[in-house]
Give the backbone structure.
Amino acid sequence: MRLWRKPEKPKRRNAATPIALFLGAKLLAYSILGIFLGWIGSVLQLSPYSRAALQIGIGIFMLGTAARLFNLHPIFRYFIIEPPRFVTRFIRRYAKNNASTVATPLFLGTLTIFIPCGVTQAMMVLAVGTGSPLLGAAIMFAFILGTTPVFFGLAYVATRLGEVMHTRFLELAGAVVLILGLVSIEGGLNLMGSPYSFSNLLNAASVSLAQASGGSPEVAAQPDANGAITIQVYNTGYSPDLIKAPSGKPVSLTVVSNGTTGCTRGFVIPSIGYQRTLPETGQTTINIPASAANGNLRLHLLDGHV
Amino acid sequence: MAKQVFTVKGMHCSACVMTLEGLEDELAGIRSLKVSLHKQRAEIDYDDKKIGEDEIRRAFEGKGYGLARA
């Protein structure tokens, strides 16, 4: 008979499980938040001009966030929204007093939506700007999924390498937010039909350069004798993308899509307040009145890209 | 009892605020600790017989932040 029993090894606490639960809950919570933000954007989306104003506002917020990350001036600290003190206190005390390895990380992961950092806040306003619950969720999902390991790794490295690395990390994040802010403002200006967007200024400059160098600028299509013209919609753009019509005469514009599934289906003519998602396959006729057919009419995608 | 306003260095987001306000529970002698991200300041109400300014500063530095009298 064997009296001696080998002592059981103490169970090793699995640290990966609570981390995975925390990150999973955070990912899910932010995706659901993205649905809500996209929905808010869709409610706010009244016209191309209101959408343009929203996009420009989002761009300015992002530029302010970038300036804060670059530490340009103390005033830019106000571009981050501080959660109420009772929220942060509750999260802190809950984390301290609850040791469950399943419920606590799940709950805390969900609560992170109440303490977003500046870059995350910038993504949240970008999700509002999409005007679509699906796209809003996709932006937040992709951002949280993509940045979790990057932020974790960089933060870990930054902690180890000190202040210089930390500053570089903030500058890198600032540069990314700066670019996103500029893209958002560019889209807003295009949606407004402004000739001062970067792409329109670039187009104007290239035409001027072509004329100055004696070359011929891009050949413009012209409507027929009845003022009708057809544009083909592809996944990558429109053809023709330049139309020259006589001023003061109405134009009947027929837009033809054939198995088109890209973002080119979102079709906007800001100056006549026209905005529509084109059918995947079909014809859409837009009558541009004579009064609107003076000067330049710009056609855009729904997100403001030309 | 002492109440002092300090300038905090190195805060970037509300998680930093939460981390520092957690010192209220960790350090004996701290009655209240309010941190403002916008102003980059901490308003600390503490019992100077139980804890000194140097000890509070070291605790902030231990979390990766700087602390100086405003």
